[in-house]
Amino acid sequence: MTELTLAKSLKIITSALAKGKELNLKPLCVVVLDAGGHVKASQRQDGASMMRFEIASGKAYGALAVGAGSRWLNLQAETRPHFLEGLSAVSGGKIVAVPGGVLVRDRKGAIIGAVGITGDTSDNDEACAIAGIDAAGYTPDAG
């Protein structure tokens, strides 16, 4: 299995923030987690509101927890709210079930981490995460 390095994590962040600038988005916070759910790198743009780190982390953590992007979790919240209530309870409330949490897969398809982004609409957050993961040479999986 490929390791998600700090250098690649920083590439994901800078590329995701560049995409946000290109799209003229609100200030973003980007969190990159390794496959074990540990923070590898994070940046919060000037002007990003409070709690952005926690929200971005929750999107990425949720994706890792279930092995699917947070877009899938959002669908589950709509169709199976009891599932999300239980998942939230067993995770200690760490999961944020809205788009913007994207799995990072290596060339063989193994999950090596996740990226969570927040600050703009969930769809825009997700687009920036995908752009960052692509730029680092990995495969994004938004769910």
From TrEMBL:
Pfam families listed in its UniProt record: HbpS-like
| PANTHER family, per database record | SLR1406 PROTEIN (PTHR34309:SF10)
Query: By what name is this protein known?
Result: Uncharacterized protein, possibly involved in utilization of glycolate and propanediol
Traced from the root, the source organism's taxonomic lineage reads:
Bacteria, Pseudomonadati, Pseudomonadota, Alphaproteobacteria, Hyphomicrobiales
